[in-house]
Amino acid sequence: MARTKRSAAPSLLVGDIGGTNTRLALYDASGDRPLSEAVFRSREHASFEEIALPFLVRSDAPHPAVAVLGVAGPIKDHVAAVTNLPWRLAERDLSRRLKIGRILLANDLVVGARGCLHIPRGSITPLTERRPRAKGNNLAVIAAGTGLGEARLIWDGARHLTLPTEGGHADFAARSAVEAELWQFLAERHPDHVSYERVLSGDGLGALFDFFASRAARVPRAIERRLAEGDRNAAISEIGLARAFRPAARAVDLFVEIYGAEAGNLALRELALGGVFVLGNIARHLVTARRELFMKSFLKKGRLAPLLEGVPVAVVTDPLVGVRGALAIARELAAAETPPARRAPRKP
């Protein structure tokens, strides 16, 4: 856990809560450097409070007055259920247990999207000649990770409104005979519903490998041993990028193609002419390595292809983009709750 010297004023707690990792940081009301920060493996803890309470107790920073927490899941009536974790978070309960006056739960892609408005230029890898241009345009954000998140930044004439979606759970639509076979393969595993998240996620990459491996004569023992060691999906990614085993290579390629197609769908749905931001560790590794496949599928939209040819697309390489967005929102909340300074009375 990283710490800096204690600040006098109340701090701001920001968090990015995902199915794999939970990142927490305490900032002062104006500075950009964290007073304290830590990353936790989400599945190793029974609840968010099990992470947050010790983090706050051990920190040298002042206790926060405001907290903004990005959550990977839908939020209804100020209550969030994390899609890939058995956690339930409620603003009122957290405020009482953590002794923080104002807590806001926000969709993780909402804070990620907001963070896209604050990232440095060097943290963007363009996939097109032009970079996303924020002012005056709608933007879209997509991120495949433990799950698939999508969000929109709608320009209202003066600023961007950051709005959540659960578009990752929309029906997966096959675009070819191979993808139709993939859908059938996934439907046997998930008979209730085959969504884009079943394909565009860490486990989705694993499912794509299983699909192509089922067509192969056999999986070499060396590949089996490597997949059994550590993170299986990360190993599939590495083997596929190196083209060391054809089913893994085909899994990576089709993953990126479907990712590009869904990013293009999102751009059309939101009319995101200002650009599309692609977030997450998967994008940083797979999309940048197979950018031609991604963009080919992104643009393959028939009569609307000329429209998408003018849409900038970029991968965000900053792993703290969600924290940046949560911090921007937390500062706005803190400023709104700070009473204006009284003017001194005029002398007669």
Automatic annotation (TrEMBL):
A biological process from GO: glycolytic process
Pfam families listed in its UniProt record: Glucokinase (PF02685)
Membrane spanning stretches: none
Domain of life (superkingdom): Bacteria
UniProt keyword list: Kinase, Transferase
GO MF term list: ATP binding; D-glucose binding; glucokinase activity
Family the UniProt entry places it in: Belongs to the bacterial glucokinase family.
Record's protein name: Glucokinase
